[in-house]
Amino acid sequence: METTHRVFVGDSRALESVDDESVELVVTSPPYPMIEMWDDLFTSLDPAVGEALEAGDGRAAFEGMHAQLDAVWDELERVLVDGGLVCLNVGDATRSLEESFRVYPNHARVLEAFEARGFDPLPDVLWRKPANSAAKFMGSGMIPPNAYVTLEHEYVLVFRKGAESREFEPGADQRYEAAYFWEERNQWFSDVWTDVQGELQSLADGRDEDIRDRSGAYPLEIPYRLICMYSAYGDTVLDPFWGTGTTTLAAMCAGRDSLGSELEDAFLEVFTDRIDDVSTLSHAVARARLERHREFVTRRREDGETFEYEATHYETPVVTKMERDIRFHEVASVDSISQNSDDEYGYRVEHAPLSE
């Protein structure tokens, strides 16, 4: 199996290199409005944002930042196929301006924006990230009433373009080989993920410290899980806020094509170091899934349960008929492919079926 992965240096408010209705899934984490690390970015896109922050007008700054993201959502509507899905990781922000502390509900504003564009919201996910400190409160400590809950979670918002789901031929290999295990379904499709931990992105030694500071990447487990949940083999996954390429790495491990758009070319240079280990990473990810399933089988049998079905490609039983043809693919090789311009990076990935 072969997949292709292309990354463009450019503004996601105009995804000129992505054709209409050419993407089946979007998995991304945008810069969060009203988080200080992205103030300069939003101000560069709209100087009025900086003016509002200087004036202490949090509401105007919040709306101005989201107005820039709205232009990206317009592009997602264009490039997605009918029935295509958007999985958007976003966190709310807490901030004090003019000595007034409040929360800025980014997830609610994004939900409003997608509904206005005709997307149907689907059930979302909360995942817990590490707290910045041991304190579970903000404000006046032990004395009521002026303490505030510490934000320790982020949202994965899920939207479908249009009212109808995608259709496939009955028994399509691209779907059935991309199946997940029964116990994975029960874990992944829970609305609260307590098993995913946030992580600091490991960037190459010797890189610009400013690049490190601007990285807001989410854990690999999040895009990998979402890609497995909401796409099939042969699908294309887009990340319009590409950053250090975590979504592309996840797509490579999951055996899907991918597209990415990134405003700063320095991040693309970092990614060339990250893909050196993608073969090892993809093998480890696929092997871990298979081994976890076998551990589940052992526990279930110890509890006196039996299995009706056997997997086709692996020596293991499965719970349901739909799991029988599940097949993992690991990265065998990665080659750079010709670029249409200096602002584009491309990779061709050969995948081999994971063997026993």
UniProtKB/TrEMBL annotation:
Keywords: DNA-binding, Methyltransferase, Restriction system, S-adenosyl-L-methionine, Transferase. Residues 23-271 form the DNA methylase N-4/N-6 domain. SUPFAM superfamilies: S-adenosyl-L-methionine-dependent methyltransferases (SSF53335). GO terms for biological process: DNA restriction-modification system; methylation. One of its GO terms (molecular function) is N-methyltransferase activity. Its EC number is 2.1.1.113. Transmembrane segments: none annotated. It catalyses: a 2'-deoxycytidine in DNA + S-adenosyl-L-methionine = an N(4)-methyl-2'-deoxycytidine in DNA + S-adenosyl-L-homocysteine + H(+). The keyword Phosphoprotein does not apply. It is an enzyme of class 2 (transferase). Belongs to the N(4)/N(6)-methyltransferase family. N(4) subfamily. This is Type II methyltransferase. It comes from Natronorubrum daqingense.
